[in-house]
């Protein structure tokens, strides 16, 4: 579509991040800026609702429900259609009452910002990462109560693209992260971390 300058996966993630704010206007703003459908799927066949469910982000789920966005389980990205996916694809959406009683919500799940920062970094664009960080009100070094942050997550997964993006965005890493790379045999991450610390 005209005016679209970022990859489809980033656009879908942007819609999810906007929904995670709990403000419908922010979702509509993203749609107006990009001209994409709220039901758009990424290359894994997920739309914004699918991502919200994957992260157990109840605030995003409720926001997308209000906008009539349903999750999709379609995996063929080329089969994308602007029509809403079949409601039965993943069963009915949880009701707002169910969401408010859920054990994990965006309000009390302190792993959620870590997931959001890590997955934004996985696109490999520092500008995109910084935009997401600004939107969620976190930082590149946000660390949850168990000491997990995006850089540690990227190192554990051996995700060099995400780790490089985090480092370029100013992520603070120490010798503990290097030890984590060694313990998990993540040699590419170890090399990247070593270069960064020596700079």
From TrEMBL:
Residues 75-104 are annotated as: Disordered. This is Uncharacterized protein. It comes from Lymnaea stagnalis (Great pond snail).
């Amino acid at each position: 579509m005209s005016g679209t300058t970022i990859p489809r996966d980033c656009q879908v993630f942007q819609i999810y991040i906007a929904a995670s704010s709990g403000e419908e206007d922010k979702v509509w703003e993203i749609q107006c800026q990009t001209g994409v459908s709220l039901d758009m799927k990424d290359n894994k066949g997920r739309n914004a609702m699918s991502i919200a469910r994957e992260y157990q982000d109840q605030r995003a789920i409720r926001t997308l429900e209000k906008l009539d966005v349903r999750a999709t389980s379609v995996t063929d990205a080329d089969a994308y259609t602007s029509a809403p996916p079949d409601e039965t694809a993943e069963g009915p959406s949880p009701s707002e009452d169910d969401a408010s009683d859920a054990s994990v919500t965006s309000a009390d799940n302190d792993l959620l910002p870590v997931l959001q920062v890590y997955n934004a970094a996985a696109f490999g664009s520092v500008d995109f990462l910084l935009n997401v960080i600004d939107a969620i009100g976190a930082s590149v070094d946000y660390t949850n109560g168990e000491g997990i942050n995006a850089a540690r997550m990227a190192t554990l997964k051996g995700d060099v693209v995400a780790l490089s993006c985090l480092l370029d965005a100013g992520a603070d890493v120490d010798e503990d992260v290097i030890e984590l790379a060694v313990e998990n045999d993540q040699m590419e991450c170890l090399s990247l971390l070593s270069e960064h610390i020596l700079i």
